[in-house]
Amino acid sequence: MVYSVADLTPSDEARMLADAVARFVDDRYSHPDWRAIVDGEAGYCQTRWQQMADLGWTGLAIAEDDGGYGGQLAELLQVVEGLGRGLATEPLVSTAVIGADLIAQCEGPARTCLRRVAQGELRLALADEEAEGWDFNEGLATVARDQGGRWRLDGRKWLVPDAPHAHQMIVSARIDGPGAEAASSALFLVPVDQPGVEITVIQSFDRRRLGQVLLTGVELDQQSLLALPPHSAALIARARARLLAAYAAEGLGLAQRVLELTRTYLSAREQFGSRLSGFQVLQHRLVDLFIAVEELRTVARMAMMACELADQRMLGAARIKLIQLLPMVGRQAIQLHGGMGMSDEYPLGDCMKRLEAIALSCGPIEQALDRFRRDAPPADQSARPSV
Amino acid sequence: MEVLLSAEDKRFRDEIRDFILRQRPLAFLDKARRRVPFSPDDHRLWQRMLNDAGYGAPAWPVEHGGCGWSPLRQMLFAEELLLHDCPRQSPYGLAMVGPIIMAFGSEAQKRHYLPRIRSADDWWCQGYSERQAGSDLASLATRAQLGADGYYTVNGHKIWTSTAHEANMMFALVRTDNTGPRQQGITFLLIPMDSAGLTVRPLRTLDGNRTINEVFFDDVRVPETNRVGEAGKGWAYSNALLQNERLLIADIPRSKKRIARIKTLAATTQRGGHALAEDSGFMRRVALLEADLEVLQMGTLRYLSELQAGRAPGAEVSLLKIRGSEIGQALNALLLEAAGRSALPYAPSDHGADAYPDDFDDYRGIVEQHLFYRASTIYGGATEILKSVIAKRVLGI
After folding, report:
1. Which residues on adjacent β-strands are paired with residue A197?
2. Going from the N-terminus, what domains does chain B have, and what CATH number goes with each?
3. Which CATH number belongs to the domain containing residue A168 in this structure?
4. Distance in Å, alpha carbon of B125 to nearest chain A alpha carbon
5. Does residue A238 surpass a pLDDT of 90?
């Protein structure tokens, strides 16, 4: 993939897609409706999920040969951004941005399931993390034992996004036994209804469903093995990069909604005989919000490109800015809304909570900064500024 | 602060500590350990116990059954309560309506209400804010009309009313006159919450809990004898004592507890093969806020010493509330960072102690506090409003 400066703005096609997603969200994601869905039994809407598939979104970035539409990550992220604005809980990121891409990167019989992803029949989740630690998920406790052509998985996975919605999970597991492969992990495709798989549903403060996954003697055939080291390690890095790009897109969608809610509120609300939007201190704080949204627009683009270019430095910068900006946007907007912003019935609070949750999911800021420093390009003497 | 305390101050603190350790119900300890919030009954029980021991009203003069303590000792007292896992005293009766009744109420009102505040027989809420009158409180529109029968008829709507669902009494600002300047048509009324026509509706906040409410008045009848002072002077009464109240609103004890919790969490949280407490980047940010808090506490003491020297500080004391709420919010955000994704699992306290997933007990309350405490820079004078007041009254611009 080669990018130019021109790719920093969305293409005309991407803009048309963005309009379509915006209409989809405006028509279907009124805040009361959304609340009813996320507080319901499933936590997402099956009807909407099927509509998304029918619109071609779940298969957007799946190759045509695999039953998809052969689109780019940029377009898929345009959908994620639009759905982010609507606070959608349907598992498009887990399924299409991460899961389907991982499977597509592997040769083997598992590829046949991509067609079902495109048709909306199959939802996926990535079960990788076992504890806090974006950067240091080494030495997994989940082990896979080779039992002569069959595999046996034991272990637990921690706060897996969308696990309760998934039909199949992509599970990372350390291969048990001596040898070079034991240090890193392989990837398996595990049906959630396989004996030995137990998922405890956890509700998060941003009204999402996570799964505490317990794997006890899960028997798998050879076809369930997706990738072995070192290929699997590269795939996990790829999945994390794409997850970050998806967070950036979703965060941007949310931040735009928050800015719009706040701008509207300040323009309508009167105190001390004039509109709040007339007070300079509030104008400046609103502009701070706007600056954050513009920065997030850049960050989202950077993160998308970094995925395809496998550029860790660019990805690292995007990650740092996400951790910094996303909570600030939500908190600033609450302050500008005053007491109204504290109401749980008003959509702003749900946007704020999702922004906080995304920032937490991007990992600790110290680790992001350390990683960014480690990934620094070697000093270029010729490019040194004169002092 | 420690070095500035006299031997008597420390003895005083030892006495308080001793009392708390002997009298504190075991249930409080258990709740604090499990980080379950105190119930309204806990608050009332503790207030009764404090009152029986003579500690019911630390700030009140002795003639009204108070302790008559200096502001420093009030501060030490409040801090001891919180550091030893006891409920803090509710401000609505003791710090808000009590002093107003003392200063402006009738003898009958003083005799009736003041002892009942100390003993927790009455539990108060504050009916000030309205949908169109938040920061701009003087634009409040809830009407009270005095009839020939000696009763006010109250109609209107209050909002963001903390603990209205737990209180049996409300002190309210209502509009009795629309003709003059806005501030002069406001009257201070004491309204029983069981009055006919008064409805309380929950208003859940970001954390999903019911702390605040909307209160609707539909032809609510309130006897004229429940008016404090003169009609039309409610605004002046409610503002007269605001400055003193803001001296102790910096929320320092709670922030001290937050720092302690961050350190505990950092010591037990593993990040990439070492404890978070060994991450100098994170711990430096904690240290910075600790320094902020030290200075804030000294600043509070500085204003207290001015007060004791007879030079009452002015609107600048609001900076204690501005900084205290900012520091508290920053500490909550650090707690959230220390928890990381472990902070994601959530159930509001209102759903019961068991709704929260067991595996994540160490993180209980972090998100709840973080979300609810965003209001701290909004309630009791929003930061932007307080700054405008300082600009106008202190800096003269």
Report:
1. A215
2. 2-89 (1.10.540), 124-232 (2.40.110.10), 242-394 (1.20.140.10)
3. 2.40.110.10
4. 17
5. yes
